[in-house]
Amino acid sequence: MREMPVVTSHIIGTMAITVFAATLTVYLYMVICNENISMAKSRLQMISDYAAVRAVELISMANTTNTQSCIQSSLDLPMTVPSGGYWIALSEGSGYVVTASTVSQPTISVMSMIPLNSTLANVQVISTEGLVIEGVTVEQRIYGGLSDAVMWARRIGNTIQIGLGRRL
């Protein structure tokens, strides 16, 4: 009868160690996942900020020209972010924004405002897939790592059109 408590205490001790190890493993996994998400968001924010600055530059250049020529700027986008592939897009709504999001986890997404201080012209985001404008095929989204990715802008009257695309 005295052996029962010893066996029971070994079983309880072994179960406690196993539960502790499992809890520690899950905790460390969650910490690593959160760190990866944080790194991906940070990298996406840098990419969307870069694209927003490019948009401001192109809008300013298009605003100062008197021609309808399409001004193109190559986008030097990294191939991936820490959680994999990603895309960027331009949109307008309550303001003009660049959105960047991962392909595999769309919840990992960031936005950068495009600060426009010019009231001289209206800005219109063009995202009609497949539309060809002066050697550029318009895309709604540009995926990371494309070597032929461009942002373009042109002035038509008092409207500045801007968008993303790929060189033909």
Brief account:
This protein has 1 helix and 10 strands. It is an alpha+beta fold and 168 residues long. Strands 1, 5, 6, 7, 9 and 10 form a 6-stranded mixed beta sheet that branches.
Element order, helices and strands? HEEEEEEEEEE
Q: What gap, in angstroms, lies between the N and C termini? A: 86 Å
Count of helical stretches? 1
The total number of structural domains is: 1
- Contiguous uncertain segments of 5+ residues: none
Radius of gyration: 25 Å
Write down the overall mean pLDDT: 89
Name some characteristics of this structure.
single chain; about 170 residues; alpha+beta; 6-stranded mixed β-sheet; 4-stranded antiparallel β-sheet; 1 helix
Structure description:
Strands 1, 5, 6, 7, 9 and 10 form a 6-stranded mixed β-sheet that branches. A 4-stranded antiparallel β-sheet has the order 4-3-2-8. The termini are far apart. It is 37% helix and 31% strand. The longest helix is centred in the N-terminal third of the chain and has 62 residues. The model has no long low-confidence stretch (mean pLDDT 89). The protein has one domain. With 168 residues, it is α+β, with helices and mostly antiparallel strands. The protein is built from 1 helix and 10 strands.
